[in-house]
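User: What would this chain look like folded?
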Amino acid sequence: MKYSSAKTPIHSVTLAELQERFQEMGQPAYRAKQVLEWLYAKRAGSFAAMSNLPAALREHLDAAFGFEVPELVRKTGSEDTTQKFLFKLADASLIETVLIPASPALYGEGSDRRTLCVSSQVGCAYGCKFCASGLSGFSRHLHAGEIIDQFLRVEDLSGERVNNIVFMGMGEPLANFDNFLRAVTILNAPWGIGLGARHMTVSTSGLAPQIRALAAQPLQIRLAVSLHGATDAVRDQIMPVNRKYPLAELLDACDEYCRRKSQRITLEFILIEGINDSLEQAAEMGKIARRLEAKINCIPYNPVEGLQWKRPSLRRQEAFMAALERTGADATIRREKGGDIDAACGQLRLQVSREEN
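Assistant: Here's the prediction, encoded as structure tokens.
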């Protein structure tokens, strides 16, 4: 691990690494588990609070490791109870995190399902033409602690328990592969957050080699692929990544993931007027979904200030869905949550940046 700060972020550290550090210091191994219990079970915000550790050890830990609590810059709430958080990191970078409640239509009234959409990068380098995240360019990867801190801070600020995580916020998670995997390990571990791997989903714009690498990992994290086009011609138009990893290569990688994980993947498809909402695209999507035995999640486009794209009319959306159903594909349409608070990735960050300038 390499960090620009003199101190290693404590929420980036695994049990094995902490045990090794304590062994070098001549401390018993059980001290590492004590520290992690304070961090994740008791949610301590400082080493001084860890009262069952020797004072000298607490001083040593404080000198070596840092608590980087992200500063809340703005919080917005929508009519559907979606909450969006804009955080400022230690280097003043801005990232977004969204807390999404369960949909009664999908999970029933009274469901306690709460999903956190976390960011993995500051900005994004992949330049999807319809997305706000990349409008200000790419700055850097988040380290694992900055990913974990989003979870901890939102639970603290909202007073609600998060039981699902989606890596669908700002950035391309699989481009930040090592930090993403480290964060998933900490989120999943019994000594960490203790969240089941099947309650975590990573979304990728289509990085085929990293999909194959993820397939080789033991954790059963779920995969969503932001397809947004059922042919190379359409994906080339709106997703530059398709020129490097065209559909044939991407779908081969998805085949491998499904085979090795024995999981269904989800194909994300944002419906954009005049771009990918044709009945021909629906027919091709149906073929892809049947090949992968995948679910299709259609999402009407959430307009972004400064971008030309529009969502199709309700009639056009219904025609697209009817065409998908005729193919026998398993498809649903998701009415986006948080549209009234600009909840699409990158919108709040972009808004605040414009206000400051």
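The CA atoms of residues 125 and 195 lie 29 Å apart. If you want, I can go into more detail on any region.
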